[in-house]
Amino acid sequence: MSFIKLKQKIEDQSFFIVSEEDCSETNYGYMVEPRGLRHTFYVFADEDEAGKHVRDYWQDFIESDPDEAVNMLGAENLIQWALGRAAGPGSAKVCSLKEWLDLHLSGWDEHFEDVYEVDAISEDLEDLIGFKPTIVAVF
After folding, report:
1. pLDDT tens track for 83-99
2. pTM > 0.85
3. Residue 4 neighbours by CB distance under 10 Å
4. Domain range for residue 17?
5. How far is residue 4's CA from residue 103's CA, in Å, rounded to a whole number?
6. Do the Cβ atoms of 31 and 45 come closer than 8 Å?
7. Overall domain count for the chain
């Protein structure tokens, strides 16, 4: 039996049984869908990996759907960045799209609904995903 145990509770539980079928590798890391839970877990070895995941997600989004990216980021912000001026769709103002993407390396937790610490994980699940996660982010 594979499991993940969190330090905090989600829907009144912190212990989740998972099988190999509940786990899948994505372009951005591993996703786990515990049985009987309506949330999807994204598991990360640490905060650095979570930040890289979110940055890669937004870069891929922008590259794969530039029209939607313009709608989301705003044409005015993109023009200001092209001119090297500080702008941004959020409260943080930066001078380029690269700097905006890099904000996600440290502000990655804003991308998810909630973030939890892993208390324990079964060895077979750790072997399956290839690392020992310390963070579970919920989408």
Report:
1. 999 999 888 899 999 99
2. yes
3. 24
4. 2-47+110-138
5. 29
6. no
7. 1
